[in-house]
Amino acid sequence: MSKSYRYFNSSPEIIRLAIFMYVKFPLSLRHVEDLLFERGIDICHETVRLWWNRFGPELAAKIRKKRTSYPKQYSNWRWHIDEVFVKIGGKTHYLWRAVDHEGEVLDTVVTKRRDKKAALKVLKSLIKRYGLPMAIVTDKLRSYKAAMKELGCQNKQESGGRLNNRAENSHLPFRRREYAMQGFRKEETLQKFTSIHAQIYNHFNGERHLVDRQTFKKFRSESMTEWRSLTA
């Protein structure tokens, strides 16, 4: 990635810090500008926008490649899939998110509708990348049932009650980001941001609710060290 910094005046460390702040935390571009200024770094918020647009997809691809190259970095035991409403330019779109039983984000897809065709797009993308799971937890939207029937895996669907809380809770970090960014103006921008945000969220997801403090600190240190190596 060092060659990519060739035509930028700022150091790779500053660029890495700006992208980390903007994508990891629910901050606006101007918030990142102010935080960097407090550290003696004077840049415009539009520069931060340029950096994350330029380097964000590259970093997300590296994280995804590294995580999926190891056999136990994701689970095919149970998937949770859910969709939420997102306004883009005043029009309603749908953000589909798939997570495994531990909250690892598997994929995010933006569509204009939530019909059978959209559900097929999401499921085919997941199955192509990860293979079939033992169970797929969804809400009671009929599009899921129709799509799974066409794919021949309707017997794997589970729905009802609070079974899908895992997927619904996984939308919360995005909702905080959506508020900070004051919405999105293009479908492509939403798809790009959620794809990058999901991978970096996975990378720093230490599952602190499942481990003790010392283990969490170890995971956090390892994640930060690996982040620096990815952006070095």
What does this structure look like?
This protein is α/β, with parallel strands linked by helices and 232 residues long. The chain has 2 domains: 2-70 and 206-230, no CATH class; 78-185, Nucleotidyltransferase, domain 5. Helices cover 53% and strands 15% of the residues. It has helices at residues 12-24, 29-38, 45-68, 116-130, 142-151, 165-170, 172-181, 187-203, 213-230, and strands at 78-88, 91-100, 105-111, 135-138, 157-159. Strand 4, helix 5 and strand 5 form a beta-alpha-beta unit. The longest helix is centred in the N-terminal third of the chain and has 24 residues, at 45-68. The radius of gyration is 19 Å and the shape is globular. The mean pLDDT is 88.
Briefly, what is this?
This protein has 232 residues and is of the alpha/beta class.
Topology:
Elements: H1 12-24, H2 29-38, H3 45-68, E1 78-88, E2 91-100, E3 105-111, H4 116-130, E4 135-138, H5 142-151, E5 157-159, H6 165-170, H7 172-181, H8 187-203, H9 213-230
Parallel strand pairs: 1-4, 4-5
Antiparallel strand pairs: 1-2, 2-3
Helix pairs in contact: 1-3, 2-3, 3-8, 4-5
Distance between the termini: 7 Å
Write down how many β-strands occur, each being a DSSP E stretch of 2 or more residues.
Answer: 5
- Major sheet: size, sense and barrel closure? 5 strands, mixed
CATH fold group of the largest domain: Nucleotidyltransferase, domain 5
Number of discrete helical segments: 9
Task: Please give the CATH class of the largest domain.
Answer: Alpha Beta
What is the H/E string?
Answer: HHHEEEHEHEHHHH
**How many domain regions?**
2
Q: What general form does the structure show?
A: globular
Question: Looking across the biggest beta sheet, what order are the strands in?
Answer: 3-2-1-4-5
What oligomeric state do these chains adopt? single chain
- What's the mean pLDDT score? 88
CATH architecture descriptor of the largest domain: 2-Layer Sandwich
Query: Which secondary-structure class do the elements indicate?
Result: alpha/beta
How much helix is in the residues? 40-55%
Which range does the strand content fall in? 15-25%
Uncertain residue segments:
none
Query: How large, in whole angstroms, is the Cα Rg?
Result: 19 Å
CATH superfamily of the largest domain: Ribonuclease H-like superfamily/Ribonuclease H
